[in-house]
């Protein structure tokens, strides 16, 4: 991808953050009024056209506004966003919530998925290398406008029951990052094209597995990414003395 100018980067960041917040295509007037970019709507419109040509934005058929592409969201996650780490209080309460189950793997995973779903307001799925699946937070899907489409919701719910498909998603070769993000067609063509998945791997004694939060591609990444990382590390930490 072409390297963006500082102005283009600021405009793109504003569009992405507005889209994550509202789920609506973003127009130049909204950006000019809400974000201190100190440029005219005409300049913003011109830069938005350039960003569209470069593959960072696209224009839905029914709107004059733009929405970010998966390429833009990946750029935002890697280069622009600032992670919002869990507070010490939240970390302590999360650990206390699952502490009593540290010797019972099934109960531990059930409680971890529930706690992570509540914290991130997403649907959470975990899978071990033995094929066991744990999930929680189904109702959170319905808080996201993308999932008012029953076909999208059905596809996600079917995915959560399919061990082999989850295994294929979680076990692709990834880089050295502790948390991985898959967007749109990286998950599957068709109905999952508007979805996002943030996941990490963990170890529990002799078992290994993956823990992930799934929702729309507008996930609150600054919160979801460090929270998924924390809960994955928590499983590994609490089970480190298992044989």
Automatic annotation (TrEMBL):
GO terms for molecular function: DNA binding. Gene3D superfamilies: 3.30.450.40, Winged helix-like DNA-binding domain superfamily/Winged helix DNA-binding domain (1.10.10.10). InterPro entries: GAF-like_dom_sf, HrcA, HrcA_C, WH-like_DNA-bd_sf, WH_DNA-bd_sf, WHTH_HrcA_DNA-bd. One of its GO terms (biological process) is negative regulation of DNA-templated transcription. Residues 3-72 form the Winged helix-turn-helix transcription repressor HrcA DNA-binding domain. Residues 78-225 form the Heat-inducible transcription repressor HrcA C-terminal domain. Keywords: Repressor, Stress response, Transcription, Transcription regulation. Belongs to the HrcA family. Negative regulator of class I heat shock genes (grpE-dnaK-dnaJ and groELS operons). Prevents heat-shock induction of these operons. This is Heat-inducible transcription repressor HrcA. It comes from Candidatus Shapirobacteria bacterium CG08_land_8_20_14_0_20_39_18.
